[in-house]
Amino acid sequence: MPRTEHAAKITTVALHEDEIPVDEPVIRSLLARDRPEWAGLPLRRAGAGTDNTMFRLGDELLVRAPRNAYNAGMLAKERTWLPRLAPLLPLAIPEPVHHGSPSDAYPLPWAVYRWIDGAEPGPDTVDDWAAFGRDLAGFVRTLHGLDISDATLTGYRGGLLRDAGAWVDRSFAACAGLIPGLGTLERMWRDALALPDPTGPRVPLHADLKPTNLLARDGALHAVIDFAGLIVGHPDAEHATTWDLPAEAREAYRAALDIDDETWQRARAWAIVVGVSGVAYYRNTFPEFVAECRARLAAVLAAS
């Protein structure tokens, strides 16, 4: 499903108190039980995020093993929705090929997807950042225009800024002395809280379009992966991850979607929310992800 392995982040550290450990022997035992025809294929770690640990299986497949029971529930969402969305979207997205059941060795559901070749977007993999931003905007426009009114998909990133207030305040407090410009970031957050709420319709959201969930190929955006956060909600937070991209991509994205000032301010506030909460939660366990969050917050400050 995801990227070429040289770009994948590998972490074996437990990130959550309720995390279920998983390693290659456990994955092989699951494959031997469910899909013995795959059990002898080469298996190697292919990265890990905050929700899943991943293993490349042979040349064509990828195994995703959730870190805890909460994230395991997201696999069912992908199994239901990815086949419905794939024919309607302008970029490649993951294709589930097997849904695995729990075992004594690993008491959570797990899944196998078709591998998608590509690399994380960066200066060595993207030829034209403005074009990249426009392509990402085209994907978002199409996704947000789909009718999945039969879905009951919820999540905080599709809600209102004020609903996140209490835990965001705790995150700011936990980051005291850890983030340059924290006071300015908190002021931006509180200024956005005073804005009118979004009034448009609730739409389907990917909800986590950060670069590690995008794949570039041949110099351009090729695929969007990891739909575990798929929700229906207000679109503001969908735009937040553009602060993870170079300014040329972010500006082209905004222009392509014609995003108004108030929506953009709320999107910036969501970028701050996720960045500050990421530093607060993972500061002692996932330094690579904390570095991503810090870079996002620095970009917000630089663009303000």
Task: Explain what the structure shows.
The protein is built from 8 helices and 9 strands. A hairpin with a 3-residue loop joins strand 2 and strand 3. The radius of gyration is 19 Å and the shape is globular. It has helices spanning 24-34, 69-85, 129-144, 165-174, 182-193, 247-257, 261-282, 287-303, and strands spanning 43-48, 52-57, 61-66, 96-100, 110-114, 203-205, 214-217, 220-224, 231-233. 43% of the residues are buried. It folds into 2 domains: 5-114, Phosphorylase Kinase, domain 1, CATH 3.30.200; 129-303, Aminoglycoside 3'-phosphotransferase, Chain: A, domain 2 (Alpha-Beta Complex). The protein is α+β, with helices and mostly antiparallel strands and 304 residues long.
SSE topology sketch:
Blueprint: H1 24-34, E1 43-48, E2 52-57, E3 61-66, H2 69-85, E4 96-100, E5 110-114, H3 129-144, H4 165-174, H5 182-193, E6 203-205, E7 214-217, E8 220-224, E9 231-233, H6 247-257, H7 261-282, H8 287-303
Antiparallel strand pairs: 1-2, 2-3, 3-5, 4-5, 6-9, 7-8
InterPro entries: AGP_Transferase, Aminoglycoside_PTrfase, Kinase-like_dom_sf
Keywords: Kinase, Transferase
Organism: Catenuloplanes indicus
Mind describing the biggest β-sheet? Answer: 5 strands, antiparallel
**Might you state the CATH topology name of the largest domain?**
Aminoglycoside 3'-phosphotransferase, Chain: A, domain 2
**Domains (count):** 2
How would the global form be characterised? globular
Overall SS class: alpha+beta
CATH class of the largest domain, named: Alpha Beta
The CATH architecture designation of the largest domain is Alpha-Beta Complex
Number of strands: 9
The helix tally amounts to: 8
Q: Could you tell me the strand content as a percent range?
A: 5-15%
Mean pLDDT: 91
CATH superfamily of the largest domain: Aminoglycoside phosphotransferase (APH), C-terminal lobe
Low-confidence stretches: 1-8
Distance between the termini: 36 Å
Q: Write the element-wise H/E pattern from the N-terminal end onward.
A: HEEEHEEHHHEEEEHHH
Q: Main sheet: which strands, in order across?
A: 1-2-3-5-4
Binned, the helix content reads 25-40%
Radius of gyration: 19 Å
Protein name: Aminoglycoside phosphotransferase (APT) family kinase protein
GO molecular function: kinase activity
Keywords: Kinase, Transferase
Pfam family, one: APH
